[in-house]
Amino acid sequence: MVVDSSNCPVIREPVPCPVCEVPQCPEPEVIERIVLQTAPSQPGPEGPRTATAGELDLPVIGTVEYVVIEPPGLRLEAMIDTATDLTTIRAGNIRTVEKDGKRFVLYTLVDPETGEEQEMETRLRRRAAARNGEGKNYVVLMWLTLGDYRARVEVGLSDRTDMAYPLRVGRNLLTDVAIVDVSRKHTLDR
User: pTM to 2 decimals?
Assistant: First the structure.
């Protein structure tokens, strides 16, 4: 097949528009420079892992750790939840009473080692919206010990039985205390 080029139209170069200017993008401005550094590591049973990290040299903890509740000195397995503001504990038989014009909360905690119920009475600090949006939780002050760190923090009492762990540690205990490595569990027991 032979093509006759005499029938083809002539293609001209586009004529630039004298009125329109084509905008040119400026060079990108460096706002933040990311520098990658290797963190010091410590060999462990599963290989080298960091023991501390960050500018504050904070301990690295896992998503599940043991926390001691005082009183009564219970050692509970806790889910470390950086998405939650308030630490929450699973409690049973929650009720309020008034003594000398002050409100107190009566509740029970279960010792995971013996299964024995511990009766507790703590002054009511405030009421907070429940995580599931239904009702309000009672909030009390408790002493919590996570590794070497001990603090008195607000703890919400929850009667939810579907909690995977009896304690959910929130940011009110974790901020500037530890760095959470989601691939690890029980790092403070080693």
Answer: 0.66
